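Thread: flavin mononucleotide complex, take 2
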Amino acid sequence: MTVRKFTRNRLSIGLFGANCDGGLACSTFPERWRASWENCRDLSVRADEAGLDFMLPLGRWIGYGGETNHNGSNFETIAWASGILASTRRIMAFGTVHVTAHSPVVAAKQMVTADHIGGGRFGLNIVCGWYQKEFDMLGVDLGDHERRYDLGQEWIDLVGRIWSESEPFDFEGEFFRTRNTVLEPRPVDGTRPMIVSAGTSGRGREFALRNADMLFNVFYDLETMRSDNAELRAEARRQGREVGLFTNVGVVCSPTRRQAEDYHHYYAVEHADREACRVMMVERGLDRPEVPEEVRERFRLRAATANGATPVVGDPDDVAEALAAMAEAGCDALAVGLPNYLDDLPILVEEVLPRLEARGLRTGP
Ligand SMILES: Cc1cc2nc3c(=O)[nH]c(=O)nc-3n(C[C@H](O)[C@H](O)[C@H](O)COP(=O)(O)O)c2cc1C
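Output below.
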C-alpha cells in the first residue's frame, strides 16, 4: 500500500498536545491553555491557514495531579482528529492510539472514518502503553514490556490487513482472533495513514523501525540528536525502509530575547505546577535517588516548559536558528508546544515561519 509522506516542506511543523488542558505547559499561570472544543477548532483553522503541517494530540486517560491536574481534562484523539479534519482543508490530524485500550477492528474503522472526513489527512501515532496506573481506570493490564510490543505487533498487523484487503479473512494471533474480517470503506485512494511511533527502549525502537513511517524521539542535546537520527536512518535503510524523524519542542517566542526569557520564567518557574511536574518525573522513572540532581533539575524545567520536550526560548531569530539547527541535525518534523497555543501562534506564524522559508526549509502558506 502506498504510504503517505510529508512532501510540502523539508521541515514539517505541527502543534502537539492541544487536545489536553494545559497543553504541554505544566503550569498554573492564569493564561494556561483550555482545551475546549472551540479553542481546538479555532487553533486548527488558524494553523491550517498558516500552512502548518499537522495537529498531534497526546493520548492520555488520567491527569498528572497537582494544582491543575495537568492534562486531566482532554479529548479522545480519534474523535478530536475527526472534528479537526472536518473543520480544515489541508492540515493533517493524528490520533494517538493505545493498542491495549482499543479493539483493532473498531479502531481501524474509526480511523478510516476520520480519514474519509479529512479526504486522506488522518495519521496514526501508535502507543503500546507505558504507565500501568493510567490503564487501571480502563481495567487493562499492560503486562510486561515485551508482551505490550508483541500485542502491538499483532494489533498493527491486523489493522494493516483491514486497511488493505478487500476479501474477508481470518486472523489467528495470540492476542486477537477474528473471523470473516473485512471493512468497507478502506482508507482514501488506496493509500494508508502515516504511522508515527515514539518507542524509546530497544524493543520500542525495533517496533518503530519495523512499523512506523516516522520515529518520534525526545532529545537532550543537538549532538545526540544528530548521531541518533543518523543511526536510526541507517538502521532503517539496512532493513530496506525509509523513515522520517520527529522530535518535540516547547517554543517560547517573544519580540525580544529578554521578553521571551521573562515569559518563560513567569510560566515555567514562578507558576510551575510543581506537584504535577513531580508526578511526570515519577512516571518517567526520573524521580529516583540514583538519577543525578542536575539531571532531575534540568528535567523539572523541561516538564514545566513543555511536558519534557526541548525548550526553545528566544526572539524570532533565535527560535528560527534553533529549529533550523534541529533540521540540520536530521529532524524532518517538529511537534511544537506553545505556552498558550492561540495567544502564541501569531508570532510563530508571522515571524518564525518566514525565517524558515528564507532558509529554504519551508514553503509559504
Ligand atoms: C515524544 C513522545 C511523545 C509521546 N506521546 C505519548 C502520548 O501522547 N501518550 C502515551 O501514552 N505515550 C506517549 N509516549 C510514550 C511512548 O509511546 C512510549 O510508550 C514510551 O516512550 C515508552 O517507550 P518504550 O516502551 O520503548 O520504553 C510518547 C513518547 C515520546 C518520546
